[in-house]
Structure formats: C-alpha cells, structure tokens
Write the structure tokens for this entry.
Amino acid sequence: MSPEGLVLIGQLGLRALEQSGWNVQSVGGLTLGADPVAYAIAYASGLSARSVRAFTVRKEPKSHGTAQLIEGPFVRGDRVAIVEDVITTGASALRAASAVSSNGGIVAGVLAVVDRNEGGREALQEQGFPVIALTTAADIVALL
C-alpha cells in the first residue's frame, strides 16, 4: 500500500490486462487483499486512454442499508478481471468470481500480483478461469 507499490502494481496490472485481450470494464476481488490491487489498476487506467472501474467484494453482505455484497461502480453485464494480491489455494478468487457471476458480471479471468505455486492457479483454471500472475513466490525468493 505504499505510494511506490501502488504506482508499480497499477501500471503492471493495467499493462497485463491490456495484453490479455480480456477487454474488461472493471476489476475487483475479495476484500481486503484485492482492494489495493484493484484501486491501483483503476487509478492507473484513469491516466490512460481507457478507464477501468474498481469494486470490492465483501466477505458477507452488509446487515443494513442496501445489503450489497459488491461495493463500488460494478455494473451488471461488466466483463471483469478478478484481482488478487496472492494466489495460494484460489479460494478467495473463486468466492469473488461467484459473487460477480451471481450479480450479472462476466468473469474474464484472474490477475494476481504473486502466484505462490500452491495449486491455486490450477484450481482456478479447472473452473474455466484463465490466470495471469505478475510474478511467482519462487521468482521473489530467487532475488533474495
């Protein structure tokens, strides 16, 4: 959540999405890990030719007010990239994808900052979701 990290992740995430061909209108995932990634990408997109909106998927619907599970400018019919800080088992991304689908969104794929290579990518792909990771845990460890 540092300014430098948000700038870097926003730019790299946006570039990865542009190269994916997924043509998404919004990005988001399960709070809290996905939030800074989605917001960074949305901010970076605001500085580019094509903006992408960010949203948050709550772990539980609010018990008051609108009782929404998805907060932010998500629109029914949006093509969405589910974003994650880290993929481990894939459970958080699958939960977010289910919420998006249940609310009329189309999940184009999953974008993660780090893939821990612990089976999450495979679990997501088994459910039909393509996965892009900006890096892997092994790549980070190799730099240390």
Q: What stands out?
A: Helices lie at 3-20, 35-46, 91-102, 120-126, 137-143.
